[in-house]
Amino acid sequence: MAKLLTGKEVSADIAERLAPRIKRLAAAGVVPCLAIVRMGERPDDMSYERTATKRAAALGIEVRSFCLSADAPQAALEAVIDTVNADDAIHGCLMFRPLPPHIDERAVCDRLAPAKDIDGIGSASLAGVFADTGEGFPPATAQACLETLDFYGIPVAGKRVVVLGRSLVIGRPVAMMLLARHATVTLAHSRTEDAAAHTREADIVVCATGQPRAFGPAFFAPGQTVLDVGINFDEAGELCGDVDFDAVEPVLGSEGAITPVPRGLGGVTTSVTMAHVVQVAERTLEGGR
Amino acid sequence: MAKLLTGKEVSADIAERLAPRIKRLAAAGVVPCLAIVRMGERPDDMSYERTATKRAAALGIEVRSFCLSADAPQAALEAVIDTVNADDAIHGCLMFRPLPPHIDERAVCDRLAPAKDIDGIGSASLAGVFADTGEGFPPATAQACLETLDFYGIPVAGKRVVVLGRSLVIGRPVAMMLLARHATVTLAHSRTEDAAAHTREADIVVCATGQPRAFGPAFFAPGQTVLDVGINFDEAGELCGDVDFDAVEPVLGSEGAITPVPRGLGGVTTSVTMAHVVQVAERTLEGGR
User: Tetrahydrofolate dehydrogenase/cyclohydrolase catalytic domain: from which residue to which, for each copy (chains A, B) (predicted)?
Assistant: First the structure.
């Protein structure tokens, strides 16, 4: 049986470190506040929003939801972003993506005030991740991968990592973060020939393509660590990852490790999001507001 | 004998496409102008500056050199950048790096006006390369790699590329540009275990570590394309690349290809720099100045 890298323990650890900080903020009259911006009602967005709202409440973080219909115009979404930017009581903003195809996503992402960009969607944060300057915030999902590896004591430096998927939400940022931690990183994707030949040679495989159970046993080898970023719903409406868990887990063997879906990286991502909100709230305090 | 991917032909092609554009600018009273900012007198910087100045003159592009001593303070360098930013007659700025260790390099790079950042050193350009938005300019050396592959008809999509070196000047940007062109890209570096095992499996290897003749025959295989970005001086003071050319070229075989040093990518980088300057000059014209 491969080791299960469940998210609960990682989240508990993050929450434990956040508690005294949120207490200090409360004592100064500051309640950390997260704005969630959503267009339409995609089930994965809705599911994540419910989890985030529950988690925030448990930690003492406020959530304000801004919901638009899937066909709302660009101007309506921009007006929401402007509201978020202007409201000093809001510390961070999480906007679900991908946005509908009629929206200029890059423009909206860059409209968000960099100081509130706790999910690393704006150009300033992207440059920070790419250049490893520590400016801005990395995307929460990408950081969740690192937090999970660190919590479970899985080394990264000098290891071979293959990242499947090259999105800006997760593939490219996590690749840069792993590179900064001295991994040898390969970015594979839909146009990669024989991706399995790459992944089988890796120490760590990050699956981030958003295709339900796309990666079966042929992609993996004993002793590997598999991070499954996918949050998909299969044809039966069941939540599943990018990895065909039941078929892959036995291949990894007792030296291997894998994040399950559900109960894996999703919850850690939520925790990282909350940690970023708290960080921004602390900065506003330091700023003397 | 491997095919020699000499830069001269690539540069001639770029120059040919630039000539009518520079003519049109001249007719409108605009002489494209490049500022070169240099600290100290490193031989590779000096060599590049001489080449660039000569090339610019041949094309009808003006060059203004700003030289500081290697121990000039941060404020002096920032004053130069401010001068460059403020002067409407200067269209682009090339600043040699790495800067001396007492300089906050990131701060200086971000001080340069993004519109004049023709070598892709500022955060806006970095985000553009990382996110593939087309904003800003990619580093000229990284683009020179792509121009050379394109000129010689070497396909990139679906190919395995290994980039040796992860600097922001070349390794990371060229990796992102190749990824955007659908290559499967591995970033290897000083902490990579058995880098040769990676490079031997690649279709294209980009060598960008700045170590003279660091990569010998064990790193390569028949049929590969090798891009040698290195511009180093060996112990005898001779200009050489990161690749041990004489030993590696025979390994690549008649199906292989390699950029020589000198006479390789260096000249193409200069041409790309000039093309970026012309592009900015055209923008100022469109802007109605």
Answer: 5-119
